[in-house]
Design goal:
Layout lengths: L2 H18 L2 H10 L5 E6 L15 E8 L2 H14 L4 E4 L12 E7 L8 H11 E12 L5 H17 L10 H6 L2 E10 L5 H4 E9 L3
Parallel strand pairs: 1-2, 1-4, 2-3, 4-5
Antiparallel strand pairs: 5-7, 6-7
Bound molecules: S-adenosylmethionine.
Length: 211
């Protein structure tokens, strides 16, 4: 096994769990994930940290994908422990294994920062979402202030290698809007528990307006 693969399979899942599993991050998840309803798809479902926040009375079905097999094992175990029937598959957002207009809601938390091709992933999300459906997003990204933004540019070339391809300089709402969605913001701001270069967050809903 090469060192990059060893890192991705053994160390990276622990790094992601540390960063994404904190109670403070959970507070933000609580503002977004319970809004999911109908047929739900979660992009980059990771280790399943969002599962506890779904309103299972409002969700009629749940599908998730993620390219990291180790995280998927944890996500499937969480679902089993909750007695929740789910369709969790290995896959990438750039090529979603679902038919057109399959979902009412897509949940996307801390994932658009890590995909290889955000425009293609958003176009795939638009394809599998029903017209009128919504993406519920909670993402970190490019800081609006010049000081932290400069640090993001300096740190990103190293950071992306240790943090699973995570980029610091991607715009959140701007990128989603460009892909043809109407943004309904819920919140934005610097996360208190992180340095500003890692802590700019935006969360809300993005509506698929139809053809
Ligand atoms: C920071 S983690 C967030 C995990 C989870 N969404 C959460 O909120 O806890 C980023 C996730 O994006 C996944 N990811 C990376 N590239 C991806 C891609 N091309 N398509 C879908 N997911 C991807 C990673 O495997 C990882 O689980």
């Amino acid at each position: 096994m090469g060192i990059a693969r060893w890192y991705d399979e053994t160390i990276l899942p622990k790094v992601i769990s540390l960063g994404c599993g904190s109670p403070e991050v959970d507070e933000l998840r609580r503002e977004v994930v319970p809004l999911a309803q109908g047929a739900v798809f979660e992009l980059g479902c990771g280790g399943g940290f969002n599962q506890q926040h779904y309103d299972t009375l409002a969700v009629t079905s749940y599908a998730g994908i993620d390219p990291n097999g180790r995280l998927l094992e944890a996500a499937r175990k969480r679902a089993r422990d909750r007695g929740w029937e789910v369709d969790i598959r290995e896959g990438r957002g750039e090529d979603l294994p679902f038919p057109d207009s399959a979902f009412d809601t897509i949940v996307c938390t801390y994932t658009l920062c890590s995909v290889d091709d955000p425009a293609r992933v958003l176009s795939e999300m638009r394809r599998v979402l029903k017209p009128g459906g919504r993406i519920l997003f909670l993402e970190h990204g490019k800081a609006p202030d010049s000081g932290p933004a400069r640090w993001q540019q300096r740190i990103e070339p190293v950071w992306k290698h240790i943090a699973g391809n995570c980029r610091l300089t991607r715009e959140v709402s701007g990128t989603i809007r460009k892909a043809g969605f109407e943004i309904e913001p819920i919140g934005q701001g610097y996360f208190e528990k992180a340095p500003k270069w890692a802590g700019w967050m935006e969360w809300g809903a993005a509506k698929h307006l139809g053809a």
